[in-house]
Every structure is written in C-alpha cells, then in structure tokens.
Design a protein that fits this description.
2,3-Dihydroxybiphenyl 1,2-Dioxygenase, domain 1, 8 strands, 115 residues, 4-stranded mixed sheet
C-alpha cells in the first residue's frame, strides 16, 4: 500500500501553497473536470492538493497532522523563524529523529524531520 493523494482544504489556497513551498514543494495551479481551481504538488508518488473550503465548511480542519522529511532542514527552520511561524517543538533530537513541530497558517501541526 502507498498513499497517492492528500487533500488540504483552506480559505486561502495561495497562502497555504506558498507556506508548503517553503519545504521545497513546487505547486501547479490548475483544475481538472468539475473541480475548482486548486494547487497541486508531487511528493514522490503522492499528490498533495490544496483546495478551497467546501460550501459546508466554515474553517479548515485543524486536526490533520502531517510530517515531512526535508533536505534543507536547518535553512528551512531559519526561514520559518524569520517569518515568525509558531513552533510547538523547537528543533530537537527525539526517539523519531531530529525534528521540529510547527503550525501551518490553518493551525495544523506539521512535523519537520531532518533527512
């Protein structure tokens, strides 16, 4: 089994795509079929898509938690601190590896791992 698709919904798709681009993702802005315009990036064989909220949603789901292994960990952490991104765990060695935990613009917890 492998994960092929992750969809994040937000009230500001560009802001969220710009944020996740800080980790090295490259997004395309497009639509297919009857879908709304959205951002899409490839992580290995997994597609990460950022869609607008549905009509029945008033806010983004804050309970989803993602983890990314990133190559440029130290530089990314410095950039995030310069942008005053909230860290709930400063970079530290854990039983799972060297990592930090931040919040994305919609307040989802994001684990960043040093590759």
């Amino acid at each position: 089994m492998d994960i092929r698709l992750i969809v994040l919904r937000t009230n500001d798709t560009k802001r969220l795509a710009d944020f996740y681009s800080l980790f090295g993702l490259t997004f395309d802005y497009h639509k297919h079929g009857n879908s709304p315009l959205h951002y899409s990036a490839l992580i290995g064989q997994t597609v990460l898509e950022i869609y607008p909220l549905t009509k029945s949603q008033s806010e983004a789901d804050k309970n989803l938690r993602l983890g990314f292994g990133i190559d440029n960990f130290d530089k990314t952490v410095l950039t995030l601190k310069e942008l005053q991104v909230s860290f709930s765990l400063e970079p530290t060695q854990t039983e799972f590896g060297f990592m930090a935990i931040i919040s994305d613009p919609d307040q989802r917890k994001i684990e960043l791992y040093k590759k």
